[in-house]
What we know:
This protein is mainly α and 172 residues long.
Amino acid sequence: MPHAYRNATVFAALLGLTRTASTIGDFWVQDDFCVRVKGASDDHPVTYVDPRTQDKSVHGTADGRRACLHHCLTYTATQAIVAGLGARVLGIRVPPGAAAAALAVSFSTHYLADRRVPGKGVLEKLAAQTGNTALFELADAGMNGAFHLDSAWHHGWETLAVLIATAKAASR
Length: 172
């Protein structure tokens, strides 16, 4: 297979694996506490109600950062496992340095997007700068604009991460 086609095939395979892992990490691995608390700050505390016990607890900046960090670690671990196992099954060898760089891009950009402190979050600021505040704030008629902007952010950065991993990938 010509080199360009092999690279494109490897890229497509790794992107598919990474997107699948991202969805699993965001929606199956992430727990309810992280979902609700990862944007908490001292200025905008979050009251968390445990769904099992109905106990209430209030969380600020430190807990918000920890919840977001925990989510991003489990999210990135899910990507590493799924992409790593998938690559092995497909006979793709991604050098450890390239894999680490790709996962670092995914982890850091995921944290930036998911640490949604009201008025201070990266996505909210980016939406304002690009004229997308109305979309970011949309939460009506079955739509959630912030969710869609978040998803687009992750897709873009994961594509860059996979390009990094693909640049040095080879056949096993």
